[in-house]
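Q: Convert this sequence to structure tokens.
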Amino acid sequence: MGGKGSGNHFRWSSQVTTSEVRRIDIRHMNKCGYLNPNTQGILSWSSNGQPNGKIRFFTHSHELKLSYQYRENGGKWHALEQSILFDRTSCHFGGYRLWFKCPCCSRRIGVLYGVSQLFLCRHCYQLPYTSQNQGYINRLIEQKHILGKRIFAHYEMGEGWGKKKGMHHKTFDRLYLKYCRYERIWTQEVVQRLASHTNFDI
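A:
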């Protein structure tokens, strides 16, 4: 993973998507009244009904301050603070709308993502939307099914058994290894999507 000196982008696995990492949505904060100046509180996340991280926030008129502890892959906790400036755009019927300014690229954004120790926009972390990666998963499943129907005498619901009649054992063994590879890659994709990549706590 690169830093600010590598083109202002943090390179992250392209298989990780926006729906799999912690996020701070300015629309949610506004709805909850968290954007009012001199407001403080705790933002928390959960996974499968279980607590999965929390941070403390302080809202000022011009910025949002985050105070939290961070660790990666079960390592040592580190105390961190991060400031995110607000940007404003005028609304058609008066008033204004608040946005975050990405601390790295200064883009006007509505959602920050906690992939590594800082909350940044998805462009800086090169995070695709979930829909952008869906085609890859579908192709893996389709290739597995095509090969399964080709080599197994019986293949139903993604499970195969028995070598297809007339197929040489060497051919079956070679294609079966390829079939297992599709299965292994697909399993790894699922595990990566469910795994928690970083931890945050107050």
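Residues 45 and 90 are 31 Å apart (CA to CA).
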